[in-house]
Amino acid sequence: MTTYGDCTFCCATVEEKRIEYDYRRKGNLLIVSNVPAGVCRQCGESYFTPEVLKKMDQLYHDIFDRHQKPERVISVPAVSL
User: Fold this and answer.
1) Are 39 and 14 in contact (CB under 8 A)?
2) 25-79 pLDDT per residue, tens
3) Domain ranges of the chain
4) Residue-wise over 24-34: b if at least 16 C-beta within 10 A, else e?
5) SS3 per residue for 6-72
6) What pTM did the predictor assign?
7) How many Cβ atoms sit within 10 Å of the Cβ of residue 38?
8) Under CATH, which number does the domain 14-64 receive?
């Protein structure tokens, strides 16, 4: 279990949870499930360890650069305002 400091935005307590994270980069979207993160109990801001960020970056490159097959593909509606 990772210990996180207080939230840098609202100073509330940050607790470790498993979340679903929308990883966006270069116009691509990768939805990553079961991500360990520190989540602020008050404002919901998420914090990640360097190891988790490296793993998400590796998954992104595996799929979008190395053309590895993701676990699943979903359809996402997109609109302009």
Assistant:
1) yes
2) 999 999 999 999 999 999 999 999 999 999 999 999 999 999 999 999 999 999 9
3) 14-64
4) eeeeeebeeee
5) CCCCCCCCEEEEEEEEEEEECCEEEEEEEEEEEEECCCCCEECCHHHHHHHHHHHHHHHCCCCCCCC
6) 0.88
7) 21
8) 3.10.20.860
